[in-house]
Amino acid sequence: MSKIVVLGAGLVGKAIAIDLAKKHDVTSVDVNNEAVSSLKPHHVNTIKGDFSDKLWLTNLVRDFDLVVGAVPGFLGFQMVKNVIEAGKNIVDISFFPEDSFLLDDIAKQNNVTVVTDCGVAPGMSNLILGYHHPRMKIDTYECLVGGLPVVREWPYEYKAVFSPIDVIEEYIRPARYVQNGAVVVKEALSDPELIHFEGIGTLESWNSDGLRSLIKTIPGVPNMIEKTLRYPGCIEYLRVLRESGFFSYDEVEVKGVKIRPIDVTAKLLFPKWKLKPGEQEFTVMRVRVIGEENGKQKTYEYNVLDRTDLNTNTLSMARTTGYTCTAAVELVLNGSYSRKGISPPEFVGEDEKCFKFILQYLKERGVIYTITENQS
C-alpha cells in the first residue's frame, strides 16, 4: 500500500481519490473544507490547506510516495514545479497553459517522473497517438471530444465539471493544429462542423488548442487536429460573449473599481453551468489515426461514449479523466513507467504494456474504448 496525496478535491480530484483509496493510503487536500469533507466516507484522509504555499506544500508532500495534481490550470504550473523541487513523482491533470517542458531539466535534476496532461483529451488521446506513432507512418491524426449534459437546457446547453475559468480558457486560447506539415494558428471556436455520433446525434465541432505537447513530441505527422464538441448553436453564444469582451483578462474600471471581465463572467456563468443534483452527463470522444502500416493503408478509430455512473453518482468526465490518471499512477508506483523528466501521455503510450494496461484499467471501471481497424 502506497501513500498518495491528491491536490484538489473538485469533481475529478474526488473521483481520483476514491479510486486510488481502494488500494492505497490516500490523502485529499483542498482549500474548500466542504469538498474534502465529502471524501471521508470513502476512506480518504483529508486536509484543508492552501497548496499554493510552497513551504507548506513541500512539508506536506515529504511523507508521500507520489503526488496527484488536480488543481485549476492557473495554479498548475507552479504547483508541479514545487512538487518537483520537493523530489516527488507526480501525475498531473491540471492542464496549465504554460509549456510543461520548461520544467524538464529541473525534473531530471531531481530524478523525478512527471506525467502531465493525463486526462481524457489531452490524455488518453495522446496515449493513442503515442502508441501508434512508432508502429506506423501516420498521415492524419484527428481527435473530437466533448463532455455534455444529457438534458439540453437553454441558453448554453452545457455544464462544466472543471473550474469555470479553465473552461473559458478553451474559448479564448488560440487553437494550433498541423496541416500539410505546417503549424496553423486560428482563433478558438473557428471552423465549426456538424458531425453525427451514434447514440448521441448531431454535435458541433470547433477548433481548440488540444494538441498541446503533440505538436512538439510527435514529429513527421503532416496532419494533426483536435476539435471540441458541443451541441449545435452553442458556438454563436460564446463568440458573442468573447467579441464583446466578457472573456477579457484586461481590467476595466466600473464605478471606480478595477475588475477583470473574465472574473465577472465566470461568476455569472458558473451557476448556469453547474450540474444540478441528479443531473446526468456524458463524455464522447473519437480518435482517428490514419497512415501506412506494413506497406498497407490503415485506419484505426477509437470511440468512447461514457455516461454518469448512477450507482456511484460519478460523472463521466470525472471517470474518463480521473481513471486515466489513476491508471498512470499505478504504472509509476509499480515501476512500469519510470522515465525521468517531463512525460506527456504520448511518452507513456509508446510502451505497449503501459498502453494496454491503461485500456484494461479503464475497461475494468466501465470506461470502454471501442477500437476498429480498416485496411485498404
From TrEMBL:
Ranges where the Saccharopine dehydrogenase NADP binding domain occurs: 4-115
Keywords: Oxidoreductase
Gene3D superfamilies tied to this protein: Dihydrodipicolinate Reductase, domain 2, NAD(P)-binding Rossmann-like Domain
GO MF annotation terms: oxidoreductase activity
Domain Saccharopine dehydrogenase-like C-terminal, residue spans: 119-367
Pfam families, sorted: Sacchrp_dh_C (PF16653), Sacchrp_dh_NADP (PF03435)
The protein's name in its UniProt record: Saccharopine dehydrogenase
Source species: Pseudochryseolinea flava
